[in-house]
């Protein structure tokens, strides 16, 4: 049977109401439980880009990048991009292609950066394995995501600003 919640009560398995400046949890359910986070993964990917000394280095989109499930991003084989410019399709359109291209280009740096983020922010229930968010192994808790959000808001608000854009005018809109 389906559960019915009172109006205004979240029906998600896990949720948290938190202070966006501090990440302090004010209320929630299953706040420490880890669940797949799908495209929320892309906030972690964006942070790896901003930490990277290669964020403005040009590279070429490959067929493998474009073969990622989902077609968002309007990216084209052979197109010259930078990890930084890929933030826009990554965060506005939730482009899986952009996320995997960033992961491929950064290589080992990607894995090290993800681990550094998890360690620096003490994200105990977070595990990121791909750049697209397609893997069910990309998991986190409401608590860890609150910490990440507060960190981004205070350190790299630009990432959150991009998520609020309706469009980005580039070579292909």
Key terms:
6 strands; 173 residues; globular; two-stranded antiparallel ribbon; two-stranded antiparallel sheet; mainly alpha
Description:
The chain has 173 residues and is mainly alpha-helical. Helix content is 40%, strand content 10%. It is built from seven helices and six strands.
Strand content: 5-15%
Structural class: mainly alpha
Strand order of the largest sheet: 1-2
| Shape field | globular
State the total count of DSSP E strands.
6
Mean pLDDT comes to 90
State the distance separating the first and last CA atoms.
Answer: 45 Å
Instruction: Report the radius of gyration as a whole number of Å.
Output: 17 Å
- Number of helical elements: 7
Share of helical residues:
40-55%
Profile the largest sheet.
Answer: 2 strands, antiparallel
Low-confidence stretches: none
Which H/E pattern describes the elements? EEEHEHEHHHEHH
In a few lines, what is going on in this structure?
The chain has helices spanning 41-51, 63-66, 83-92, 96-106, 108-120, 142-155, 157-163, and strands spanning 15-18, 25-29, 35-36, 59-60, 80-81, 139-140. With 173 residues, the chain is mainly alpha-helical. The strands form 3 sheets. The chain has a two-stranded antiparallel sheet with strand order 1-2.
């Amino acid at each position: 049977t389906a559960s019915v919640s009172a109006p205004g009560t979240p029906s998600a398995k896990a949720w948290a109401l938190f202070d966006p400046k501090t990440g302090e949890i004010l209320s929630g359910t299953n706040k420490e439980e880890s669940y797949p986070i799908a495209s929320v993964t892309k906030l972690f990917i964006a942070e790896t880009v901003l930490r990277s000394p290669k964020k403005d280095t040009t590279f070429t989109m490959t067929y493998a990048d474009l073969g990622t499930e989902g077609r968002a991003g309007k990216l084209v084989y052979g197109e010259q991009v930078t990890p930084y410019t890929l933030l826009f399709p990554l965060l506005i359109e939730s482009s899986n292609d952009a996320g995997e291209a960033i992961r491929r280009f950064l290589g080992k740096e990607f894995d090290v950066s993800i681990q550094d983020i998890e360690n620096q922010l003490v994200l105990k229930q977070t595990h990121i394995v791909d750049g697209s968010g397609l893997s069910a192994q990309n998991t986190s808790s409401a608590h860890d995501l609150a910490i990440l959000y507060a960190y981004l808001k205070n350190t790299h608000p630009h990432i959150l600003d991009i998520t609020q854009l309706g469009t980005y005018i580039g070579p292909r809109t």
